Amino acid sequence: MSNGGHRPWRSLLEALEGSFAAAVRSPEGVADPAALLWTDADGQWRPVIAGLREAIPQLYTLGSLDPVNRIGPVIWLRCVVDRTLPGIAPAPGVIPILYLAGVSRQDLRAGGDCPFALQPLVELQYRGAVWHQRNGRDWTIDAFLTSDQGVGLDVSLDARTREAMLRALPILLTEPLDPLRGKRLDAEDFDRLSIGDPIRDLLAWMSSPDTFQGRSDAGRWETFRTVCAREFGFDPERDGPAAAGMALLHGGGKWDEVWQRFCEAPRVYAGTADLLREARPRDLLVDRARQPQVNESLEQQLGDGLEATSGLPHREACERILALESGHKERRKWVWAELGESPLAVALEPLARLAMLATSPLVGGSLESTAADYATDGWQCDRAALESLAAAKSPSETGLISRVVRALYEPWLDKTARHFQQLATEEGTELRRLVSGVPAESGTCILFADGLRFDAGGILQERLEALGLRVRMTHRISPLPTVTATAKPVVSPAYASCEAGSDATGFAPVLALSKQPVTASRLRDELARQGVEIVESDAKISGPQGDRGGWTELGRLDELGHSLGAMLVRQIDVEVETIADWVVNALNAGWTRVRIVTDHGWLLLPGGLPKVDLPAYLVTTKWARCATVRGESTPDIPTFAWHWDAHVRIASPPGIGSFIAGMEYAHGGVSLQECVVPELIVERGQAAVHAKISEVQWRGMRCRVAVDTNATGLSVELRKNWKKADPEPDRIAAPKALSHDGQASLVVEQDRYEGTAAMVVVLDSAGRALDHRPTTVGEQT
């Protein structure tokens, strides 16, 4: 589960892995891509492929046949994708990544004009996915290192820096990125990375001795042996990798620095981890965090402890989980968690949050106060349950964690629901009175997201705020029953145009003018009739065309919940990202704000909601969490007034019960999770000023400059030295304001400057330099 935007990538390797994962992610109902195509016309990425090959086992490279290193010609790659090469193809469910050096996207798009040798790959661009930037271009190294969708470093784009950056690329793959952030990087910064690093060389040798020695000539190998003897007290040729593994296990002196570096990028040095597995401690003083056998034993103990928890009474189960967390939380900091060998310790973190929150059910004194308490922080218990379920990876983990979640979550959920139902019964029509509509507003686009429960809304708020947007989240009350047919018209500007009809079996009102039941298409037609602009969510977004605001519909949470049950947890991040991207695009297109509304929430419980019996002869319509009472029948369960007609009675199962057995996901009833829903008002925030020179062109003594920026009031000028506090003596061309499209034309009036090295500088309104690029006055471009 997302926690609101990803944290800054720790290394280039981690950023690439994250970008690959995003490129192959598909929403539920859409088949996974057959392969991810990585086109690289200029072969820029070749220097890092060897390092990536060790860390990413599903990476395959176009080239002369070398199955050991997962390299082969086009037809071999097709066999990999079609999984006709046993032992070479990736594991089931793992999508192969095909690195195609010397191949561009245009080559594959050319169809019949595509080079004959590449034609077997053409159809994969339709059956697979292509790794590229949002603008459709291939990811170059420059773009990936500087883009916010990549690493997000601030890199000078002069030729010398670029050459140094390319030289340092294999080292940059695993180098920590934090020391490189917050400053403009130039050639010297990248050259420093390329200087010999004994610890890095030692780890590379430990991870793959044969490969390291194969890349080393006799001189480099002897130098490496000398450095190892002097710095680390052992001879790699005489003592061998096993001795190095023992030394790393026991630590001390420079070996502690080696351990720290290994922990920063353990997946790159997978062979080093294997050495540690083979090493055995000489005494009991060896750090437990360095011993994979200790971690494995503790993970087994944790699994046994979790299994025992699922059979305990609720309070004891919560206390047991908190005790387990106290004993195992430190292991999440161990390197074995980074290597994926501590899945239960990782899953224990949200389970512990759930155990803590589930000991305090929401028992406010009124409907309004209880709803407010839930909207303030009560929903965090639901979020902890979802994140616990999402933490499970393998089928065995999923079964175990699902049982623990049920033991912790079900009693809290049921007690909270029963209290809310009691308040709703005692306060009569109070719940109905708390329901309100959503007006049409000029400049505001209403985004309807079906089934956006409060915890998903909280995740969405965090994601939008991480993108620099200003978000205000409040809560609304969903009408009864909490189903789309009843609730969706309420959160549209057409609310006042709807009324109760003669038939409540489908829970839908009718349009006052036509007396036809409200459907999605009729609702949009009514909104358009009222002057509200209908914005198609899958089309290019344009700004507002009228003064009655807009309406769009986006998101499949409810649809996915009904089809996936508890496995909905694996799709929430995808849906949140989809909504967040649309909001950003809408604000960029000119909408002043986006108001995100929803119709209802839902209950989700692994293993299914408790079954509640309701005889069919008492009702005319029966869904999992609601039913329409037939005539004057008197079912022995709570009933409530239908929102659109108080004379129609809706039966709702007590607590978190369901009229249909085996339902893990359901809505329509009376609970905080179903009735209290989020509303988010999203507006542009005060984003940091961004300005980057994208183009410098000379025509004689006139220089045209293009700047990518999100700010106004900027200017550009030409100087000899951009760093001087007083630029006047070094100014070659006076400042010129950027136009609205980020362009300016500078004229050098004195011919004596022709051929002079100069710097194009972007300035803010206070005269501070935001970006600079070297150039030569009058150069041919």
Would you mind describing this structure in some detail?
The chain is of the alpha/beta class and 781 residues long. It folds into five domains: 12-182, no CATH class; 198-288, no CATH class; 292-426, no CATH class; 435-684; 691-776, Sandwich (Immunoglobulin-like), CATH 2.60.40. Helix content is 39%, strand content 17%. The chain is built from 28 helices and 28 strands. It has a six-stranded mixed sheet with strand order 9-21-14-8-13-12, with helices on both faces. A five-stranded parallel sheet has the order 3-2-4-1-5. A hairpin with a 2-residue loop joins strand 18 and strand 19 (645-651). Helix 2 packs parallel to helix 7 and helix 9 packs across helix 13. The longest helix is centred in the middle third of the chain and has 32 residues, at 395-426. It is globular and about 95 Å long. Mean pLDDT is 89; it is low at 2-6.
Topology:
Blueprint: H1 12-24, E1 36-40, H2 46-55, E2 59-62, E3 71-72, H3 74-81, E4 97-101, H4 105-109, H5 124-127, E5 129-130, H6 141-146, E6 154-155, H7 159-172, E7 184-185, H8 187-194, H9 198-207, H10 209-214, H11 218-232, H12 236-250, H13 254-264, H14 270-278, H15 292-309, H16 314-328, H17 335-338, H18 343-357, H19 367-378, H20 380-391, H21 395-426, H22 430-433, E8 444-448, H23 454-466, E9 469-477, H24 484-487, E10 498-499, E11 510-511, H25 520-529, E12 533-534, E13 550-553, H26 557-564, H27 572-589, E14 593-597, E15 603-604, E16 619-622, E17 627-629, E18 639-642, E19 645-651, E20 665-666, H28 672-675, E21 676-684, E22 691-699, E23 702-709, E24 715-719, E25 731-737, E26 743-747, E27 757-763, E28 769-776
Parallel strand pairs: 1-4, 1-5, 2-3, 2-4, 6-7, 8-13, 8-14, 12-13
Antiparallel strand pairs: 9-21, 10-11, 14-21, 15-20, 16-17, 17-19, 18-19, 22-23, 23-26, 24-25, 24-27, 27-28
Helix pairs in contact: 2-7, 7-8, 9-13, 9-14, 12-13, 12-14, 15-16, 15-21, 16-18, 16-21, 18-20, 18-21, 20-21, 23-27
